[in-house]
Batch of 2 targets.
Target 1
Amino acid sequence: MRSKLFYWLKTYLGFSRKESHGFLLLLPFLGILVIVPTIIRQIKTSNSQDFHNRFMNQIDSMENAGLVLVKSPGPVFNPQDTVKKSSVDKQLENIQRISFSEADSIVLQIVPGIGPGSAGRIIKYREDLGGFHSTNQLSEVYGMKPETIELIWEFFEFNPLIFRKIKLNQSTIEEISSHPYVTYGEAKVIVAYRNQHGGFQSIDDLLKIRIFKVEWVKKLAPYLDLG
């Protein structure tokens, strides 16, 4: 049997006779490493079961003696005891939520993930737009991540506020194209159409300029005034 094992080790594993002897000496230790953890688990399981049985026997004995348990004699586990409040939750406890339209680049930095650079970009974009009318517009700011945007609305209230509009029948090409939604070329077409056909009677008149898409006009509409 021993010679067959040596032959197998040499043929399939390439062991020399010396390596085969060493491998056979190592086998008992490998077996112990495999068996010992299993035995330890069984002992722990057995001890836990014994403790549970003794505990339940004590409960039964007390109930048979006429005692009524009104509260668990064991420790009561409350999951909330192990829940640590996040740093965001702690910050929210200490601040008063104000309108997002009132926040400046300094106040915005209370939000995790917002530094001086991103706060400055948010404020600049809000000024360039003339105010936010939708929470989704914050995603248009360069570098803003969805998770950071969600945090912003935990720290600030959102109230739609547009504080500046484009006077469609009076603004110059430069004034119209200064808006983030309008390119210089689009502004030139708007002014040229106005000069040729007279003032716009409604925002929908922009759709008479057939190169403009309905989606773009609807996006721009909140920032247009016929004055």
Target 2
Amino acid sequence: MGKVESDDEASARLEAALYSAGRPLTTEELIKASGTESRSKTLALMTNLVKRTKSAFKAIEVASLPDGSYVFQLKPEYNTVIRKYASKPILPTATLKTLSYIAYMQPISSKQLVEIRGSGVYMHLRHLRQLDYIEHQNVGRMKIYTTTDKFQKYFGIQGDKDALKQKLFTKVRTHMQPTPAQTEPAIQA
């Protein structure tokens, strides 16, 4: 593939790559997609694309993520509005459940996740790490997982991890009718 000469063509290629990827793209991937072979040129085109998207659209955006990647996405505040129209979920349900356990229980070990979610959790963890929604630290032979800034930005969550836990708890509590067993305090083992 030869070098692209026109800014319009390079910008169109960036739009096409971001739209079709369905995931964040790194600067290196965007340089390849643009055909400019130039980091500074590609970043200038991305800055312009972000501005144009903000002025042209109300519900979708091209967002720059904390790790330097870019994503074409629905603005987080519209996620619940369109859920019933979405043709496929952002994440498979099982992976989303694993992510919710990590978000609520963090920091949480892989051993605890396997006990709660089963051995399929390893595939979920791989997928979530690829999306950069989670990170881990090695403590001895154990991996301890937490969510990332990218996770918080992508899902429209502001604040620290305690605020996230409170938000998740409130959301779950308002969507569930408690049974008598749920209203009694749990016995700690």
